[in-house]
Amino acid sequence: MKVIETSIPDLLVLEPKIWSDDRGYFFESYNEEKLRSLGIHYHWIQDNEALSSKGVLRGLHFQKGEHSQAKLVRVIKGEVLDVVVDLRNESKTFGKTFSLLLNGINKKQLLVPRGFAHGYIVLSEKAIFSYKVDNNYAPEHDSGIRYDDKQLDIDWLLPKEEIILSSKDTELPFFDASKSYF
């Protein structure tokens, strides 16, 4: 597994070695021992999976305080644009965004530490999105940032009229309201 540092400290891209032949492919999507040998120490407690159609945007979500979650995200089938925002107040990259195309072909994964808002938009007809978390879901600490916040200026790669949101995500606050969570 190859670990690629990003422009935001602690935010890592994991690129697995894929063995392919005429039968298909094989790769290790997770190997705790290998990650620990690379200095990556997380205790994942839950796996989640979501199926979504083209244009579905989920995010930008996070949990506040001690209920925050680190995530290891990937796409099993299809393609998404995965986006994170650094919400760590003491970080030199506070408020900075990072985006990455994740798909069922490149098998890349994004390791999102605690203190980040996370979201993705489906670019293919359908996508199966999978992620591990290191903390339980706590609905009373659930929060987020609006996907179309002008200050963040995220290019979601699809026209606004093609974006499909949950009612919850249409009511999320703007970035300025999130400055004191981490």
Task: Chart the SSEs and their pairings.
Blueprint lengths: L1 E4 L6 E4 L3 E3 L2 E3 L5 H6 L8 E8 L3 E7 L7 E7 L1 E8 L10 E7 L5 E4 L3 E7 L3 E8 L8 E3 L22 H4 L12
Antiparallel strand pairs: 1-2, 2-10, 3-4, 5-12, 6-11, 6-13, 7-10, 7-12, 8-9, 8-11
Report on the architecture of this protein:
The chain has helices at residues 32-37, 167-170; strands spanning 2-5, 12-15, 19-21, 24-26, 46-53, 57-63, 71-77, 79-86, 97-103, 109-112, 116-122, 126-133, 142-144. It has 182 residues and is mainly β. It has a single domain, classed as Jelly Rolls. It has a six-stranded antiparallel sheet with strand order 1-2-10-7-12-5, with no helix packed on it. A five-stranded antiparallel sheet has the order 9-8-11-6-13, with no helix packed on it. The longest helix is centred in the N-terminal third of the chain and has 6 residues, at 32-37. It is globular and about 50 Å long. 28% of the residues are buried.
